[in-house]
Amino acid sequence: MDRRWLSVLVIFCMTLGAVALMHDTADARKMGGGKSFGSKPSYQRSAQTPAQAPTSPSRTQTGEQAKQGQQANKGAAAQPMGARGGLGGMVGGLLMGGLIGSMLFGGGAGGGGPGLLDMLLIGGGLFMLFRFLRSRRMAAEGAGPQPGGVQMHERSASAWGNLAGTAEQASGPDLPAGFDPDEFMQGAKAIYVRLQSSWDKRDMADIRQFTSDEVYEEIARQAVEDPAPGKTELLLITPQLIEAREVGQQIVVAVLYDVMLREDGDTHSRQDRELWHFSRDRNRPEDFWLLEGIQQIER
């Protein structure tokens, strides 16, 4: 094979590898790895955006949503134009164009194929291209309202061991008797923060007590593949109660998490939407709610 065409093939393969790496690592750091899995076959495939359960929000929830909306507007207005990475993309494009042209027309290492300097330049160009493509992807996913820096503090999840409430706390007709949606959603938000924090530290013992056997098995498998601790900044968490129903002796609850997060020092935040399924024996209100499945929301 002509060495010039071999050089082009090498560059093409390296570019494909960089793009593939961008997609593979986008969801690898957060808990669950951006996959759908769980104890039921239906949990193992993506879900369409579900409708929210018809429950009236409390005053606390309404106030929090108003504050989050104000902070999101301030954050969106304050976002600099330079964060889009246009200069890096332009330089990367010019560099890659020059290198490919050099290889095609015999400019690399005297016309005999790429030399060491050429390969170093190619590697630098691919790195810049990778950074540019990834920043564009994250900017597109996070193009919605972004907070100006909401501080997420982990709340105690101990109250989640007893959320059945009393019979006097009657909710809507579609909810199980004694189920307190406000109290449950406070716990749902706290457990999301706690599980993500435990995943960042690879604290599998803590994750185990809040997950079913099937979910824990999958998360443990991901921890073996990616054992290094990470850092995930949860900028905004908006949980929505989708469904709460009785299935035999179990109370099954579905929660839609709409989250803005930033991973491992990334400069851009991104939106993440997942449907989490919890269950608990209705006759054992002292038990923890267990995470039985995670479904990705179809875009």
Describe the structure.
The structure is a single chain. This protein is α+β, with helices and mostly antiparallel strands and 299 residues long. The chain folds into two domains: 3-21 and 81-141; 31-78 and 147-296, Nuclear Transport Factor 2, Chain: A (Roll), CATH 3.10.450. It has helices at residues 3-25, 59-78, 86-104, 116-141, 181-201, 204-208, 213-225; strands at 37-38, 232-247, 250-263, 270-281, 290-296. It has a five-stranded antiparallel beta sheet. The longest helix has 26 residues, at 116-141. It is elongated and about 75 Å long. The protein starts with a helix and ends with a strand.
Summarize this entry quickly.
The chain has 299 residues and is α+β, with helices and mostly antiparallel strands.
